[in-house]
Write a structure and sequence with these properties.
Mean pLDDT: 97
Number of strands: 6
CATH superfamily of the largest domain: HAD superfamily/HAD-like
CATH architecture of the largest domain: 3-Layer(aba) Sandwich
CATH topology of the largest domain: Rossmann fold
Helix content: 40-55%
Structural class: alpha/beta
Strand content: 5-15%
Low-confidence stretches: none
Number of domains: 2
Distance between the termini: 10 Å
């Protein structure tokens, strides 16, 4: 069945978010190491662990899980937008969450320094914002698709944070006919509702679309659920089970092009 539209995930499909986050951790933890002598990598591991535990302890956790906002986005997001009451809770929680995650991370390594924790909590968002990375093949692939297919960006996350990521690489958004952010819609991938909403915006049936993303549990599962073709971009050679089976698996975005012919 000829495809009329290509739906793309954003983070770690078009934008190289993993690299941005990793380098922000590296820079922040190295700054802490210079001040205290702590092992930078051990601090990163401790902060990631403490951030996850804290994040999951908040009453907002089921909401963030449903919308698709991870703990490390919480370490730099402001949560200024979004109509749901939970976004206002997150906006209130965020400054303390950031400070507590870094302070507890330091504590885990024997450093009791709340002032340093607060300093690192501000440094990490600044370091992340300096690093809006995009994969080298992203624009070449979008150039080849634009004009031949309807293009839709379907991303999980907080509205203001996802828009900030797009603003960091301003050339991406103009490629898309529609941009749907889970925090604006009210449900995140893999909910079939957000996928059906995307198809309605495109004016197509499921068999005429194809979803491209890096996460089996959100991008691929959601597309499969509504009967739409799915393409799993598996850049890191991860092994999958037969629980969620993509229509296609690729290692590089340019491998998508022959699948559409």
């Amino acid at each position: 069945m000829a495809k009329q539209a290509v739906l793309f995930d954003l983070d770690d499909t078009l934008l190289w978010d993993d690299r941005s986050v990793q380098e922000a951790f590296d820079a922040t933890c190295e700054a802490a190491a210079a001040q205290t002598g702590v092992n930078a990598k051990a601090l990163e591991e401790a902060v990631r662990r403490e951030a996850r535990a804290l994040y999951e302890s908040y009453e907002t956790y089921p909401f963030t899980k449903m919308i698709g906002i991870n703990p490390f986005e919480g370490l730099w997001a402001n949560f200024l937008e979004g109509e749901q009451a939970e976004f206002r809770q997150l906006q209130q929680l965020a400054p303390e969450y950031r400070k507590e995650a870094w302070t507890r991370g330091l504590n885990a390594l024997g450093i009791d320094d709340e002032a340093l924790g607060a300093q690192l909590a501000e440094r990490f968002p600044a370091e992340r914002r300096k690093r809006p990375y995009v994969y080298e093949e992203t624009f070449a692939v979008l150039d080849k698709l634009k004009g031949s297919y309807k293009l839709l960006l379907l991303t999980n996350g907080s509205p203001d944070l996802q828009r900030e990521k797009l603003a960091g690489v301003p050339n991406i958004a103009p490629y898309f006919d529609h941009i749907i952010i889970s925090g604006e819609f009210g449900k995140g991938k893999p909910s079939p509702d957000i996928f059906r909403h995307a198809l309605e915006r495109l004016g197509i049936e499921p068999e005429h679309g194809i979803m491209v993303g890096d996460k089996l549990t959100t991008d691929i599962l959601g597309a499969n659920t509504i009967g739409m073709s799915s393409v799993w971009i598996n850049r890191h050679g991860m092994t999958r089970t037969d629980e969620i089976i993509p229509t296609h698996e690729i290692k590089h975005l340019e491998e998508l092009l022959p699948l559409l012919l």
